[in-house]
Amino acid sequence: MRTIRKPFILIVVLALCLLGITCDTSIRENVQSRDLAVAVPEDMGMSSERLSRVSSAMQKLVDDGKLAGIVTMVARHGKIVHFETFGYQEISPEIQMLKDSIFRIYSMSKPITGVALMMLYEEGKFRLSDPVAKYIPEFKGLKVASGEGKDGPIVEKANHPMTIRELMTHTAGLTYGIFSKSQVDEMYVKAGVLNRNQTLKDMINKLSKIPLRQQPGSLWHYSVAVDVQGYLVEVLSGKPFDVFLKERLFDPLRMKETGFHVPEDKAGRFAQVYSYDKERNLITREGFGGANNYLKPATFLSGGGGLVSTAMDYMRFCQMLLNGGELDGVRILSPLTVDLMHRNHLPKDMVEMAPGSGTGFGLDFAVILDPVEANTISKGEYYWGGAAGTWFWIDPVEDLIFVGMIQQFGMGRPDVRSLTRQLTYQAIVVAHSCK
After folding, report:
1. Is residue 145 a contact partner of residue 152, using CB atoms and an 8 Å limit?
2. What is the CA radius of gyration of the chain?
3. CA–CA separation, 45 and 325 (whole Å)
């Protein structure tokens, strides 16, 4: 049997090689330093010529007037193999996009908040199964909307208190007030749950007076849960959320450009945000009514959507995760905790979640369960994106990270996320997944 199998395997490998496709048998193991130094793509199992297709596609989006500017970044085996800019940080006056341009990352703040909370998990400050009310007593006895009434929602008792695991998986029963319609959502808007002039404690006080939109654990529903996590970090650490992030995460990882506002000396690198007019021309327009003035220190430290960052800063954060919680000799989390974060934590009987078919949800990340259904390559890939178009994914199978930065709102925004996935994976010529 062995004499049959070995030649057969050799024939298959030879055939793949003749097709220009090889399997990763040594590159991953031979990379000693995963420090995000710049490397030749071919040394990391990728093709320079094929990676240029990413560049051509991004430049075309700019040339066609669909996007003002773009930064794209690819790392494989801990090395940067692609880092380019396209178009403008601001169209008028013309300011070229820079590699260190600063972007509103909106919901890409969420994984950062999740990591901060899990740092406290590692210190034994809580269990994922703990009721949130154990640490935020204002949430004790929250009622749940069971129907719509004349003067507001009809309520019932919660079948169990929301847990921290549910808080981290958007299954806690909370909502956003802006992405769905219900009487509970209307109460969020009326109360100003996301008011940028308030504190996290003010938000908690408001939420404590509003019923949950649905029973905890019953539905994946995008929500303010990660903002609540930011407050939970404050409670568990005894420090303001922004101070904790700076001291425990940003400074150790040398994420020097990431924070809740853009200091005056960096304002010249703050990318303008755009939308479309009726003729599909690009126009400047801050998102969410311009509620957040990023040039002033923030009062509302939104862990769900308040951070600004650069492509390199966010790549450092992602590489720390792909490295198993460590970067440049600085350990943020243990490998087992990182692994726990990108497992699917949704109940088995939960209906399909919003981010798409073949997808589950971990602790503040979406997770690919079935790459065929999800229209991607690797099982176990984890990712998220921001409201103004920023996006990233981490692929542990192919040992790959992609970070993309744009600043674009509006219907009809080009699907750069799917496009860059397709063009990035076709540039891999030494694949691990074909083993």
Report:
1. no
2. 23
3. 24
Taking only the tens of pLDDT, the chain with its 435 residues reads 444 444 544 444 444 444 455 555 444 444 348 999 999 999 999 999 999 999 999 999 999 999 999 999 999 999 999 999 999 999 999 999 999 999 999 999 999 999 999 999 999 999 999 999 999 999 999 999 999 999 999 999 999 999 999 999 999 999 999 889 999 999 999 999 999 999 999 999 999 999 999 999 999 999 999 999 999 999 999 999 999 999 999 999 999 999 999 999 999 999 999 999 999 999 999 888 777 899 999 999 999 999 999 999 999 999 999 999 999 999 999 999 999 999 999 988 776 455 568 999 999 999 999 999 999 999 999 999 999 999 999 999 999 999 999 999 988 899 999 999 999 999 999 998 654
Distances (CA, A) of 21 to 77, 146, 433: 18, 56, 11
Q: Is 312 helix (H, G, I), strand (E, B) or coil?
A: helix
DSSP secondary structure, 176-234, as one string: -SSSS-SHHHHHHHHHTTT-TTS-HHHHHHHHTTS-BSS-TTS-----THHHHHHHHHH
CATH of 2-105+261-297+310-341+388-431 among 3.30.70.20, 3.40.710.10, 3.40.640.10, 3.90.180.10: 3.40.710.10
Residue position matching structure tokens 């073949």 = 358
Secondary structure letter of residue 426 according to DSSP: T
The structure tokens 């192919």 sit at 398
What is the C-alpha end-to-end distance of the chain, expressed in Å? 20
Q: What is the value of pTM for the model shown?
A: 0.93
